[in-house]
Amino acid sequence: MKYFNFNDLIKINIILNLIIFDKKLSISNFHIHPFYSPFRRTILSLDKSKNQTLQDGRNFLDKCLNLSNHQKYNLFENPKVTAIIPLFNCEKTIEQALHSIQYQNISNFEIILVNDFSKDNTYEIIKNIKKDDQRIIIINNHRNMGTLYSRSIASLIANGEYIFSLDNDDLFFYYDVFDYIYKKAKKDDLDIIGFLAINIRNYTADITRMIDLYTYQFPDEFYLEQPELGIWMIKFNNKFLIHNNMIWDKCIKTLIYKKAVNLLGFKRYSKFLSWAEDTSINYVLLKTAKSFKYIYKYGVAHFVGRNTASNTQPIELKIFGELFLLDIIFDFSGNNIEEKNLLIDQALYIYKGYKINRYINNTNSNYLKSILKKIFNCKYTSKLNKRKIKKLFITFFN
């Protein structure tokens, strides 16, 4: 008689949960993709051991955090890469973030900094750094516009072949990130290439991987083609897919980024958005892209617990961001019946998370009503999901 070991039981439990989850959503003709199976990849596929990789990364971060950079850099006419950083009141972290770019082992890139109406010394700091680094381009917003707008306008003037995005309080993890990922993207002519991040809660402690997002769910490398690109990231209840919400864990072909921003439209990305903005533009990017490849490469050091939107934004702005995403999914899912009916999942997510807040203000209430009306009147929304929506949001239909 054969007995299952503990690891086998975990694998079976994961698969069963994923199957149950798909059945709950009543998705027809949607098959579990190979990347759903978290145990199908080797644990590490780097040239060095995990410990050596983390130690090298730590040494690089120490260099970025502790040293002043007095080297001069010249402008390149045809940069390979554009690095985009939206800035808001980041006088304590922006110089370190820039060091992690300046110390990359390739120098043929440009850096677009979008100062989002900072009230501290951020602008003075970057203006001073630009004196020695001609690769830096500075954009000053006339008022606080949010990160979606800042990244979008930066992408429209980008000259690099590929775009990397970075938050103003994070750092690239090692000196070869641009070189390694750019070469991978160019070799296979990829539209989007994703990579790993490191989660750092206290820099004096050990560096750990973002275990909730990256520890076990991916094969070493995989491709996705349409239409899966537009479906997989909107299953919010699936913890194996939540990683795809971020923009700073990807290298994106500039032509694809510009196309997605233009499709999104100025009226949308000019709205102040500081919550769910990554998820919203990611959805449009994934709908636009034709190829995506994930590589097992540590790319970004993400510092947790800093002054980010996740813990500083008021609830009404967070609700607006969730509604904005719901609107984006509806508008860009087109005639795809599977995706149209996944909207109910996002609506449930909003309802469960914010029902006690009564949507805070009239702007959010009216916005939700307009979206629910579109979903309810759409011929691609199933009768069952229409009933669910009407039952949940009954006050909006009276």
Task: Give the helices and strands, then pairings.
Layout: H1 6-25, H2 50-66, E1 81-87, H3 94-102, E2 109-115, H4 122-130, E3 136-140, H5 147-156, E4 162-165, E5 171-172, H6 177-187, E6 192-200, E7 208-209, H7 211-214, E8 221-224, H8 228-231, E9 250-253, H9 254-264, H10 266-269, H11 277-288, E10 292-303, H12 309-312, H13 315-332, H14 337-354, H15 362-377, H16 383-392
Parallel strand pairs: 1-2, 1-4, 2-3, 6-10
Antiparallel strand pairs: 4-9, 5-10, 6-7, 6-9, 8-10
Instruction: Tell me the number of structural domains.
Output: 3
The pLDDT mean sits at 77
Q: What is the CATH C-level name of the largest domain?
A: Alpha Beta
CATH architecture of the largest domain: Alpha-Beta Complex
Q: Give the % helix.
A: 40-55%
